[in-house]
Write a structure and sequence with these properties.
The protein has 403 residues and is an all-alpha fold. The protein is built from 18 helices and no strands. The chain has one domain: MFS general substrate transporter like domains (Growth Hormone, Chain: A), CATH 1.20.1250.20. The longest helix has 31 residues.
Length: 403
């Protein structure tokens, strides 16, 4: 390994990669997770049900995570910059195109398909690049900072979307989001780069890692946590309106989740060196369960604010530490492809959670059902994360290709 390669790890250039990944997460998930703000005006405009609109969110998030193994592998092979730049162009086309269509099938094509493909090109390639540019204890911090872009994006995008919709309508809001998103993502792509070479590249045995018991528990527990999280992003804004809050106040709950998730991503992650990464990861699942229990009992807007803050902390901890847990358990060789496979669990969560809850809401006209389903999913997620254990193979083997 050359001294130049060694010096590039944990370097100022590596922190520029963190900034690029942060911008990618900020835009891609900020736009995706403000979906609940657009749900009702779009449903009214196209005369479709809550279940149908929930299906649209499932298309977006499902493509984001099911395509992640492909985009992660492409980033491993060709570098993250090109893949994220393609995502930037797709994001602009998806949002601006959605604003121009007048039939729901075209909304599914542009908003569902376009936004889902764009986000798939952005998140995993950026996060995997961060994981590969850092060694040792700084990797957890770097990943936490990069992934905190999700929370910051949610904090900003949801209330801004609500205000733009009230002033200009949802179509013009999409046009504004499209141009700004594409510009920020192209900037983020420019900051990304392939990791420095660290000797002979070791071919990762991804299949061997994915059939291990630890990966199975990590995958399924993450899937159920995703059900609990996505139900909130899709339905909590309308739930708030249903109990008497304004549309902007309902969107603010999503913003509170995003803001608090930054605390979870950085705060819980910062405690990992002292109490153990897996311990703090499990505690994040406990916090998520507490939050969903609060949501299920909420009858007033201030209680929903408490829910948003508590949920954000738990969700933020899970999102920030999941890549670090994967890197700790299985090493960083082939991390982009491995994270892509892992995050298909979130894709399954989108297919399972929001559509089922949407059918229940349409049948009962009661927005309590998403909260009840979120509690059940959080319980299952916590039960399945407990058996995860550290790999017993030597550390040198686990970090092959990074040392």
């Amino acid at each position: 390994m050359s001294s130049k390669s060694v010096s590039q790890f944990d370097s100022p250039r590596a922190w520029m990669v963190v900034t690029g990944a942060f911008l990618g997460a900020f835009v891609s998930f900020g736009v995706t997770y403000c979906f609940g703000v657009f749900l009702k005006p779009m449903a009214l405009d196209f005369h479709v049900s809550h279940a149908t609109m929930s299906m649209l969110f499932s298309v977006i998030a499902g493509l984001t995570f099911f395509l992640a193994p492909l985009t992660g592998e492409l980033a491993d092979r060709h570098g993250p910059r090109l893949v994220v730049a393609v995502g930037a162009v797709l994001m602009g086309i998806a949002l601006i195109g959605t604003a121009r269509v007048n039939s729901f099938p075209l909304v599914v094509l542009f908003y569902g398909g376009g936004l889902g493909c764009a986000s798939a090109c952005i998140y995993v390639p950026g996060v995997a690049a961060v994981g590969e540019w850092f060694k040792g204890g700084r990797r957890d911090l770097a990943l936490g900072l990069a992934i905190s872009g999700i929370g910051c994006g949610t904090l900003v995008a949801a209330p801004v979307a609500a205000m733009l919709i009230e002033r200009y309508g949802w179509r013009e809001a999409f046009v504004i989001f499209g141009w700004i998103s594409a510009a920020l993502l192209l900037l983020g792509a420019a900051l990304l780069a392939s990791p420095p070479e660290s000797g002979e590249k070791v071919k990762a045995d991804i299949a061997h890692k994915c059939v291990s018991p630890s990966f199975a528990f990590l995958y399924v527990s993450l899937m159920f946590s995703g059900v609990a999280v996505f139900l909130a992003f899709v339905f909590v804004a309308d739930y708030a309106v249903d109990i008497g809050a304004s549309r902007v106040a309902g969107a603010a709950i999503i913003g509170y989740i995003g803001a608090a998730s930054v605390v979870g991503r950085l705060g819980l992650n910062a405690l990992a060196p002292r109490f153990g990464l897996l311990t703090m990861y499990r505690i994040s699942f406990v916090i998520l369960l507490i939050a969903d229990a609060v949501w299920a009992r909420a009858h007033a807007y201030p209680v929903l604010v408490v829910f948003g803050i508590v949920m954000g902390i738990g969700y933020g901890g899970i999102a920030a530490m999941a890549p670090a847990v994967a890197a700790e358990l299985f090493g960083v060789a082939g991390l982009g492809e491995l994270l892509g496979i892992l995050f298909t669990g979130f894709g399954l969560a989108c297919l399972l959670g929001p559509p089922v809850a949407g059918v229940m809401v349409d049948a009962t006209h009661d927005f309590k059902w998403p909260a009840f389903l979120a509690v059940a999913a959080a319980v299952l997620g916590l039960a399945l994360v407990l058996p995860i254990r550290q790999q017993t193979e030597p550390k040198e083997k686990r970090v092959a290709g990074a040392a």
